[in-house]
Each structure stands twice: as C-alpha cells, then as structure tokens.
Fold:
Amino acid sequence: QVQLVESGGGPVQAGGSLRLSCAASGVIFSVNNMGWYRQAPGKQRELVASITSDGTINYPDSMKGRFTIARDNAKNTGYLQMNSLKPEDTAVYYCTAGISLKRMYVPTSWGQGTQVTVSS
Structure:
C-alpha cells in the first residue's frame, strides 16, 4: 500500500511562497497520477491541482498562475509550488495518489496533511 508524507508547510506572510513536497513509498510510480487537496476549517475539501500519467493537469481558476504541480518519478516525489499566497489559502494541504479515469484524476491514497497558514 502506498504511503504519502507531506512536508514544507508552515506559516508564511501574504504574498510569500511555499513549496510542498510529497514523498511516496510502498509502490513504484506512485506519483504518476497525483493531486493536492486542501481543507480549511469549516470548509469542504477541495482540489488544488492534479496531474495524471498522460500529462493532463488541472487547476481551479483561482489557483492557476499561482500554484504549480510537479512530480519526479525517479524520486517518487510530488511537489506543489505555491506563490503569491493569500490568507484564503490557509488550510491543511493533502497529498494524494490515485488513478486516471478518462483523464479525470481520482484520489485513492491520502497523506496526513500539512498545515499552511498565510497571515496578512
């Protein structure tokens, strides 16, 4: 079973940047299909970014241009680069591994999450 461990979260001022990492273990090519989700207090979990093995990348419009998803299959590691952070980005961020269903990303494994807190 795949195990996912996030790192890189923490406090940051508005306008700043963070780079989250997701180390996958237990299987090979665990980040071929992967995605980042976040959940703020009292809010539902939402997709931040995803990438599938065919190269399809999905970002919500509010994050497009600010967030970048990447993967390194050789290192079995996924990344989320976050720039121009806003207080509204404050949330627990989760790394996921999953499958591609007709170019739609479907998460199947979840990390425990890492807290990102953006102050104004």
